[in-house]
Amino acid sequence: MERDKWLRELKERADETVCKDVTFTPGMEEAVRKHIRQRSQRQRRGPLLASASAAVTLLALWMWWPDALQPKQPAAPGPAPKTTAPPLFGLVSSPPVLWKTSPQMETVHDGKPFRYVGEKPVRIITDELYEGQMQNVFWLLNGPFAPEVNLVGWSTEGERVDLGSYRVAGPQYDADGHFPSGIVLPHAGIWKLQVVSGGKHFGQVFVEVKEGVSPANRELVTPLITRYLQSIRGDLDWLGGERDVKLDVIGVEAPNAENRRVYAWVQITGRGGDQQQLALSAPMVFDIAYRVSRGGSAGYQVTSHRMPEDGSRYQSSLESMFPPQIVQKLKRYGSAH
């Protein structure tokens, strides 16, 4: 038949051209026959094929892409693409490795000098910041801002700390608005303090948070704890009534103005009833709170103390009482002393 003759010629052409490295199997031959029959039924008036070159192309398509000769099926509808809220503008204005503290400046307004950190539209007036300890920060804003703004802290490691919402008061110094705040940043390092107004980035200032205990907190807690250890009874009664106390403050948590948690290494030397010298050297935790007495006097007081258990439970109780960073500092302190 003419069709069989055409197929033989087609195989010969395939062997000589682009398909020379492919074996023309009986299965391939039958597939081409089937496709020709289908085309013949649709094109009764036309020639068998337009040309031999078109047939070679058809064969190549079938061998490399068998699905290319099959009718396209409509794609099943997939799930709607997920949409995410766009990132807040200004969150990452420069890589954290390039962050530097904002400059400290001094200027005069209405004949009165004042110092601040940062540049317009956001500046702050504050003392040094220490890890985990609340610090009062006075904010100065310039430009159009919402009646209430949000503060967000960003560390160089990408940690985010929400620092609260604040209502903005009127002009102060050369600023269009101002507000006071008390903020706590958990770790030492460079932090970006961002002001968000109306859901949009308004401005930022970069500060350094120092490791250790602020001078103000050290001056507050050291005499309070010393007097407490000189007189407290209970589990320390065995040290006698006369005690010499040496206190090294390792860390302070000050989440607000009313409360402190102090981590310290304590050394106490006392005398028993027979004047025998007794001693204690151990890490301890102290809670301090601002209290108002019934008589109306007010002040900070040590409300409790704890220390790790002895023996085999020492390490586990130490780790349950102290944060990991304090545990590391205590280990270094113990090795040095």
TrEMBL record:
Key words of the record: Membrane, Transmembrane, Transmembrane helix
Transmembrane portions of the chain: 46-65
Gene3D superfamilies: 2.60.40.3830
Protein name: DUF4198 domain-containing protein
